[in-house]
């Protein structure tokens, strides 16, 4: 079911902050921030508050509120977008061919905070797994098609150096769990995901996504085996190969 800002905040609190002791400081959920925005609140967000918005470390700052603003922005833009959502590695997504269609110019440091941009690609100044999850959920709740623009290789799915899922794997896991079906054409290394169960898509949630990834993380690198791609042309050749054309060969004697 589609979120409102109120229901999203409530679920973020329950899913990610409920275990904190009363009065404990909320942790910074943004595990990755660009150096030039570290500790600050996005200008686009500050402009929405005429009486100011506290930066990290300042009195009145609240990580839950900041996280909500980011999650709600990407979710609402994804929910209200038209056409397919594009997923994959940034090197495949953040190119002029795709960014230009949604109004993004990285040379101007534009993100989804810029009002004219569309939510078909997730580009933000700060990132956290749950922010990305909310962006995916926005597309799922409008039952959008998802186009994967990266190949499903080991390196694109699991970071062996640090021991965690690459975000592409997280996106694919979410889609398959929330009622999507993967299709791919022979000879293509890419895939598309379309809704197969509207009910599963409608019931997709932040908490269910969190629990799903906790299960996958417990399995470690083994969890990505089902996601790895193969050469579809080769698979088709194997399935349709006429075994009657094979000739029996007698091995030579030693």
H/E element sequence: HEHHEHHEHEEEHEEHHH
Give the spatial strand order of the biggest sheet: 2-4-8-7
Class derived from helix and strand content: alpha+beta
**Helix residue percentage:** 25-40%
Helix segment count?
A: 10
The number of distinct β-strands equals 8
Shape: globular
Radius of gyration: 22 Å
Q: Kindly report how far apart the N and C termini lie.
A: 71 Å
Description:
- This protein is α+β, with helices and mostly antiparallel strands and 254 residues long.
- It has a domain at 70-245.
- Helices cover 37% and strands 9% of the residues.
- It has ten helices and eight strands.
- The chain has a four-stranded mixed sheet with strand order 2-4-8-7. The chain has a two-stranded antiparallel sheet with strand order 1-3.
- A hairpin with a 7-residue loop joins strand 7 (180-183) and strand 8 (191-195).
- The longest helix has 17 residues, at 63-79.
- The chain is globular, with a radius of gyration of 22 Å.
- The relative contact order is 0.12.
